[in-house]
Amino acid sequence: MSRHGAILAAGHDADLNVSALTLALAGDDFGAPIRSFAQRFAGSIAAGRAFRVELLSDDPVRQPGDESLRAIAVELHGEFSASIYVGRRTVPVSAWAFVRPMPWGRRGLAVGQTSPMLPFGEAACHGVAVEVGAPSVLFKVRLENLPEEGLLRACNAVSGPESGFIDVAAYPAASAADGTATVAMEFGDGSRSLLSRGLAVLEIEAQRYGGRLGQAALLSHVPLESLLAVLRARTGLSAHTGQVLETHLPRQDAVFHRAGPKE
To answer: To which H or E segment does residue 74 belong?
Structure first.
């Protein structure tokens, strides 16, 4: 996909039963990367799961228009044989929770909040949600040994109206794999609502009810500025993009130093 963009993040999460991808689009041919993605992931691999596809443009001014989004939906509809939900995010993630194309339910991405752009009856795939607009950081956290009341209070502590977080949404869920309390967390502006601070508050609230943070997994691309914001907050040092060195060295040419006694 190098000519038309790149896959910035891709993965499947068994707890939320969702495959999440972040695609960076380059140029004006938005259809090419979508076809590449659809041909790779449609078919038997899509059965029994939902997909969340986040589309980012290399030029914020040149986002896919309504006609381009419909063409993307038609392409996905034909490849996945599933309902396609499309949404353009223009509000903070806290408000996006109520208007997103497929909401996060107790078993992962759900249907029923909005009508699909292109419906499909009796589909093996649970649906494909296409999100366009300002990027967000999405990840899953398991909260081990946490009762239902503790799960709801933990989510309200990081995303409720009195939480103190400006641009965070937290969705309570139960693992599709084993029923463990699980949270899908979404951050908008990582410099205003730090990822590390949100996790710290979530852990404090879980401990009040005898729970603890378990496995976590990123489900989206993390912008560099979000990482630098965490670094600044945790170290108190200056950190900006001009200080970042990128090497892009092939793996065989990179030099790795392992800490510990020499053999």
So the answer is: helix 66-80
- CA gap 187, 134 in Å, rounded: 11
Residue 123 in tokens:
């589909």
Query: How far apart, in Å, are the Cα atoms of 94 and each of 172, 193, 198?
Result: 14, 12, 14
Question: What is the rounded (10 degree) CA torsion for 31, 33, 36, 40?
Answer: -120
Q: What is the pLDDT of residue 167?
A: 86
Tell me which residue of 63, 43, 51, 44 sits closest to 22, measured CA to CA. 51
Q: Hey, what amino acid is at 133?
A: G
Chain centroid, CA 142 distance in Å = 15
- The tokens 């200056």 sit on which residue? 238
Distance separating alpha carbons of residues 2 and 189, to the nearest angstrom: 27
- Locus of tokens 């228009």: 65
Domain with CATH 3.30.70.670 in the chain: 137-241
Q: Long-range contact list for 236-243, CB < 8 A, 24+ apart?
A: none
Angle at 188 between CA 76 and CA 248, to 5 degrees: 75
Which segments within the chain are labelled E, that is strand? Answer: 5-13, 18-25, 50-57, 84-89, 104-105, 108-109, 127-133, 137-144, 168-174, 181-187, 212-218
d(CA 201, CA 172): 15
Give the tens place of pLDDT for each residue, 52-87: 999 887 666 667 788 888 988 988 988 888 899 999
Residue 16 pLDDT: 94
CATH number of this structure's domain 137-241, picked from the four choices 3.30.70.670, 3.30.450.20, 3.40.430.10, 2.40.37.10: 3.30.70.670
In the DSSP assignment, the letter for residue 61 is T
